[in-house]
Amino acid sequence: MGDAFIRHIELLGYEKRFFPSQHYVYMFLVKWNDLSEKVVYRRFTEIYEFHKALKEMFPIESGDINIENRIIPHLPAPKWFDGQRSTENRQDTLAEYCYTLVNLPHKISRCLHVVNFFKVRHDDMNPVTDSQIKKPEVFLLPKDSKKNLTDITGPIVLQTYRAIADYEKSSTSEMALKAGDMVDVVEKSENGWWFCQLKNKRGWVPAAYLEPMDGPDESEEQEPNYAGEAYTVQKSYTAVEEDELTLREGDTIEVIHKLLDGWWVIRKDETTGYYPAMYLQKAGEVNTSVKSELRNRGAPPRRSTIRNVRSIHKQGRKQISQETYRRHSRKYIQNQRKVRGNSQNKANVIIEKDEPEDNKPKAQPAVPPRPSKDLILNRCTESTWRKIL
């Protein structure tokens, strides 16, 4: 795959924060060329500094040489004091700016300056907060707000899920849930943590606590792949449940089933069990800072550990037992050994068939019996008679 670039940027709203002092940050949903979607937070002062640097990089396109050549959109400078009203009023302008930016010529819209500015940062995943100070307030852009140019790319339809049990958050980046809460899922991460919104609240929620509204969600999960996909363990984990595996950092394993709750079924030699997906990395893949930050989070809860589940899909959900995983893994490994053994035997036969004639041992002629004297007298010449008589 080529260099990363942004396909679409949508302004979701803004957040009012109180640490280290009161300020506002805008929330953006950034869609990348690899089909991933990330939520990032930026102050308007940061956005304006980014805008000024972009204009300096492309003076012709910014209209500094000839105003008629300007294609980079305008952005008003921040006010001396930005309050909530100015932050809210600026949303339409900012949404239009982002749409125009992404649709500029590739030399601008896909340059490193743009790509790096909208990449996920550490504080996007774990914003700096103080538990003693008032928690951030989230203000989402109203769905019935004035239509802007970002609608041309098509609206983003968020899936609605229901909470199947109460969940108490363990960090400021998470969101607490009550059984029956309806949440919109903004981002699904394969590590088992999903970024959701509930009214004007946003945060990470374990996928195991959510179920879709229209039916069992096993259709969203991949089928088991007993051939296995090579992964490397990036963080050690000690098994808590009987069907989990204990592994050390650096171990190489095979993933045979990727489950939505972030606990994948893996195979180590001939042993199978569950392991947190966020502690695994595909073999040969370069480690990234974003993945490193995710691995510093705790593993999400497993579906099987959730108590008092109030799920309308509990009975209809297809589940695979650990014994089934082990049995099929053993069958697969044995079949692979048979295939390798048969191919080796065939190779040996082919070598024997194709062996050159010169290398094969030649058959020795049989020694005939010595003829009797009567036979010699009847069939041989006189000179032969004299030699033997």
Automatic annotation (TrEMBL):
Positions of the UniProt region annotated as Disordered: 337-379
GO cellular component: cytoplasm; NADPH oxidase complex
Residues covered by the SH3 domain: 156-215, 226-285
Pfam families, sorted: NCF1_PBR_AIR, p47_phox_C, PX, SH3_1
Biological processes, Gene Ontology terms: respiratory burst; superoxide anion generation
Subcellular location(s) per record: Cytoplasm
UniProt superkingdom: Eukaryota
Keyword Coiled coil: no
Major location category of this protein: cytoplasm
Domain annotation PX: ranges: 4-125
Polar residues bias: start-end ranges: 337-347
Keyword Transcription included in the entry's annotation: no
Keywords assigned: Cytoplasm, Phosphoprotein, Repeat, SH3 domain
InterPro entries, A to Z: NADPH_Oxidase/PX-Domain, NCF1_C, NCF1_PBR/AIR, NCF1_SH3_1, NCF1_SH3_2, P47PHOX, PX_dom, PX_dom_sf
Entry's transmembrane regions: none
Cited Gene3D superfamilies: Phox-like domain (3.30.1520.10), SH3 Domains (2.30.30.40)
SUPFAM superfamilies membership: PX domain, SH3-domain
GO molecular function, one term: superoxide-generating NADPH oxidase activator activity
Protein name stated in the entry: NCF1 factor
Upper lineage: Eukaryota, Metazoa, Chordata, Craniata, Vertebrata
